[in-house]
Design a protein that fits this description.
heterotrimer; A mainly alpha (225); B mainly alpha (218); C mainly alpha (45); A: 225 residues; mainly alpha; B: 218 residues; 6 helices
């Protein structure tokens, strides 16, 4: 069985079980809705302030939802005693890592799409002016988050106080991703061409590459019981 | 305590004394800031040593994942702990330096922010170690964080630098005026060497404790 | 510009306290471990 095939199988399994139960997606949808209300109450009715803070709010929403979603990344394996199953997969375990990253990425992108729609509706902002650029930026940022998040989720799966340790470990590492993503999103929402923020995109791409590489190289060690 | 440890301790003490003498006796009163600039002789060596410490964590973590040598894990742990201490000192002295010169204890300038992120990452590393009881799992998990934290440093550096560039030009006084005056450079160098010796001593002592704890744990 | 010696001494004082404190913590732990070993029978001989 090839590496690519193993990666695909892990991804397909996760997508399939999510599609059947819709557990995580439903919960995250309502979480996103709640976040929106929180932002409204926290920032008040000042439209100018809201518009100015919009890129940051978007990514806060993405990250908070991402934390909740990623925290559950290995829940199925943990709760159903499937962890040993993961360990028994022959060959390079990093295929599991990439499959999991892909699955988490897709899940996060779905939730982010929902958040974008909610933002547009409830805050009456036009987010669709440059959809391609927005997708590129959001994709790069979310990939960085998913790459490290998946690694740390596996790493803390069997650790005491993982619910607090997971965000405590993940968030400082993700600071540059957050900075870059917010800056780039701001530029896109202002109508600037992607070239104007090329250096940020380059940084995000470099970060994503580094994170994925470290993940691929160390996932084996992380998985051991 | 081994004799090597003792020797390192004395050397460090000597170096720190020399550094102190130079910081207050040799280094001149700075033209624009006044004597408050002498804090630099603490602030800069501290972060240089911290970078060294986290570099050691990176190397030791990689070595551990490679061959699972317990000594490498002990080295990583000890170096991270000492590194966090020096990073904390850097941040605190930076704040104390900043209050009279910038008018504020904290500002989100590039350097301070990057250092704060660094601090958070490795405090997280230590927290993680505290939460995992099985030595093998603890070492593996810590190694991953140690590697990722270090690999992330250049990314953080550029992201924060560009982030700040959009907000304000760098009018913040850097630690080194250019060209750097010889007494200032010499004082900085001596203090840097002293701090590095202190790092070596503390690292050795901390590793010794870790070794003790391991052999008497089970 | 005024000299702000107060700040200078605070900074050096803080660094001294932090480093001394950490060093004493290490030495204290080492001593306790060494004593513990001596009392329960010297395993390493």
């Amino acid at each position: 069985m090839t590496y690519a095939r193993r990666t695909w199988i892990v991804l397909w399994k996760d997508l399939l079980s999510e599609r059947r139960s819709k557990e995580t997606l439903n919960a995250l949808f309502f979480f996103a809705l709640l976040l929106l209300f929180l932002f409204q109450f926290a920032l008040g009715a000042d439209r100018e302030r809201l518009t100015a803070a919009l890129p940051g709010l978007l990514w806060l929403g993405f990250i908070l939802s991402g934390l909740v979603g990623l925290g559950r990344a290995f829940l199925a394996e943990r709760e159903n005693d499937c962890w040993e199953g993961l360990l028994l997969v022959p060959g390079d375990k990093s295929a599991i890592y990439l499959g999991k990253v892909a699955g988490n990425l897709i899940l996060m992108l779905l939730v982010e799409a929902i958040l974008l729609v909610l933002f547009a509706v409830f805050f009456d902002v036009d987010l669709g002016a440059h959809p391609i650029r927005l997708i590129v930026v959001i994709g790069l940022g979310t990939l960085g988050f998913a790459a490290v998040g998946t690694l740390f989720a596996a790493m803390t799966a069997h650790v005491r106080a993982r619910e607090v340790l997971f965000p405590v470990l993940l968030l400082p590492v993700q600071v540059p991703v957050l900075l870059g993503a917010v800056k780039a999103t701001e530029a896109v929402l202002l109508g600037e061409p992607l070239g104007a923020v090329g250096h940020w995109l380059g940084l995000l791409a470099a970060a994503d590459t580094i994170y994925l590489t470290v993940g691929v190289l160390t996932f084996d060690a992380v998985l051991e019981a | 305590m081994t004799s090597r440890e003792r020797a390192l301790g004395w050397l460090a003490g000597l170096g720190l004394t020399a550094g102190l003498v130079m910081a207050f006796g040799v280094a001149p009163r700075e033209a624009t800031q006044g004597n408050v600039q002498r804090i630099m002789y603490l602030h800069v060596p501290a972060i240089l040593v911290a970078y060294l410490a986290f570099g050691v964590v990176l190397v030791a973590s990689v070595i551990y994942l490679w061959g699972r040598a317990a000594g490498a894990d002990r080295l990583a742990h000890a170096s991270a702990e000492v590194g966090v201490v020096f990073t904390g000192i850097n941040i605190a002295t930076g704040a104390i330096w900043g209050k009279p010169t910038w008018g504020t204890w904290w500002t989100w300038d590039a350097r301070l922010t990057s250092t704060a992120v660094l601090f958070l990452v490795y405090v997280g590393y230590l927290l993680l170690r505290g939460m995992v009881d099985e030595p093998d799992r603890r070492a593996r998990a810590a190694a991953v964080v140690g590697i990722l934290g270090a690999a992330n440093i250049p990314i953080v550096h550029f992201s924060v630098k560009w982030w700040r560039a959009l907000h304000q030009p760098s009018t913040i006084l850097g630690p080194e005026p250019s060209p750097i005056a010889t007494p200032i450079a010499a004082t900085l160098l001596v203090n840097w060497i002293a701090f590095t010796l202190l790092f070596a001593y503390l690292l050795t002592a901390r590793m010794e404790i870790a070794r003790f704890e391991e052999t008497h744990a089970g | 510009m005024p000299d702000n010696w107060g700040y200078v001494f605070s900074a050096y004082g803080l660094a001294a306290v932090a480093l001394l404190g950490y060093w004493r913590r290490l030495v204290g732990r080492a001593k306790r471990l060494a004593d513990g070993e001596g009392r329960t029978g010297n395993e390493t001989g």
